[in-house]
Amino acid sequence: MFGLVLLVGIPVLFLTGALSYAAYNPDLGPHNDMTPDKGLLGFYLFDWPTHPYWLYRLTQGVHVTLGVVLVPVLLGKLWSVIPKLFEWLPVRSVAHGLERLSLLMLVGGVIFEFVTGILNIQLYYVFPGSFYTLHFYGAWVFIAAFVVHVCLRLGRMSRALGSRSLATELRTDLAHTVPEPPDPDGLVPTAPAAPTMTRRGAVGLVGVGSLALLVVTAGQSIGGRLRNTALFAPHNRNPGGGPMDFQINKTAAAVGINPAHVGPAWRLEVRGRAPTLVFTRAQLLAMRRHDALLPIACVEGWSTDDQHWSGLRLTDLAAMAGLPGAGSVLVESVQSRGAFRSVVLRGNQIHDPRSLLALRVNGADLSLDHGYPARIIVPANPGVNNTKWVHRLTFRT
């Protein structure tokens, strides 16, 4: 039963994780690529779309929430195969050695992926090296072992599920709960102790655990009133009242922003085919502004509700730079430390009418932590690619 749940859940996790990687547009260059030298593993990358605008919010919300919900199922599955993990002799033949190696990759890979993912969303990432790199390569190692394991065990799982009635098993009380018959893998103890829990109780325990984790996690992605139930999510708490009452991923202080960077001397540079244009914030505010209702969605699984942004369309700025058909734009921030100080956006992201250099949000000037004096906001874009504290836009063919 636990294997069947993982057989459905793990591929969904892998697919949504692969989509998350594609959403960063890593093939645009080193600015976006947190996982260099991906080689053949990047075969599937494509131009990440801007429609629907909530796409990344959905895919990453599913990825993180499902990953957390599957933890009790994973623990139940690992508990059921503990004897296999410590059997002796570890290797009895070449075939047995290959099977043990695949088991090591499978169990080690799934533990590594779940642990790194959960630590990352809890803001306690402690592993050496980039989370993106380790999680990406770890996912491919794990999914390769998973596919091999499924090929070897799918028939056996199917026969086991068909060998008895699920309803009958779930109705069996403790007094009538008997051990499994001996199996060829030696998972069943030869002299088991008397049962202390029914199979219904084991399935129920895992199910209640998964349901509880769903309740305390999903609200960070769903939003609305459910946000208050996301006790397991660090970003379920809002930073304060007023128009800026929505989540902050990184503060100005955390990335070295000080008043000198964003004070009266701040200027926006717009580069392209035409001579470089330089604007003060007052000049930008005097231009024709446009509005967009868009959320911010993060790799950690949290997202905001739709916020009312106001600013200049990126496509208009591209035209001012002499490249109305710009194929990409390099966005640079004044932040002095931290990842994603600069990112590259695709042409389809530039030319979406909802893609803005935002100056205001929810009827007020941006706060410093939300990117004052100007920030990027693009539909379906990962949060870290919606660069804050922007000071230069370089449009390219």
Describe the structure.
It is a single chain. The chain has helices at residues 2-23, 55-69, 71-80, 82-85, 94-121, 131-162, 166-171, 199-215, 219-222, 259-262, 281-286, 314-320, 347-351, and strands at 268-271, 277-279, 290-294, 307-313, 328-333, 342-346, 356-361, 364-365, 375-377, 390-396. The strands form two sheets. Strands 2-1-10-5-6 form a five-stranded mixed sheet. Strands 3, 4, 7, 8 and 9 form a five-stranded antiparallel sheet that branches. It has two domains: 2-226, no CATH class; 246-396, Alpha-Beta Complex (Sulfite Oxidase, Chain A, domain 2), CATH 3.90.420.10. The chain is an alpha+beta fold and 397 residues long. The chain has 13 helices and ten strands. Helix 1 (2-23) runs antiparallel to helix 2 and helix 5 packs across helix 6. A hairpin with a 2-residue loop joins strand 7 and strand 8. It is elongated, with a radius of gyration of 25 Å. This is Oxidoreductase molybdopterin-binding domain-containing protein. Pfam families: Oxidored_molyb. Keywords: Membrane, Transmembrane, Transmembrane helix. The chain crosses the membrane at residues 62-82, 103-125, 137-155, 202-222. Residues 265-396 form the Oxidoreductase molybdopterin-binding domain.
Question: In terms of topology, how is this protein built?
Answer:
Elements (H helix, E strand, L loop, with lengths): L1 H22 L31 H15 L1 H10 L1 H4 L8 H28 L9 H32 L3 H6 L27 H17 L3 H4 L36 H4 L5 E4 L5 E3 L1 H6 L3 E5 L12 E7 H7 L7 E6 L8 E5 H5 L4 E6 L2 E2 L9 E3 L12 E7 L1
Parallel strand pairs: 1-10
Antiparallel strand pairs: 1-2, 3-4, 4-7, 5-6, 5-10, 7-8, 7-9
InterPro entries: OxRdtase_Mopterin-bd_dom (IPR000572), OxRdtase_Mopterin-bd_sf (IPR036374)
Protein name: Oxidoreductase molybdopterin-binding domain-containing protein
Keywords: Membrane, Transmembrane, Transmembrane helix
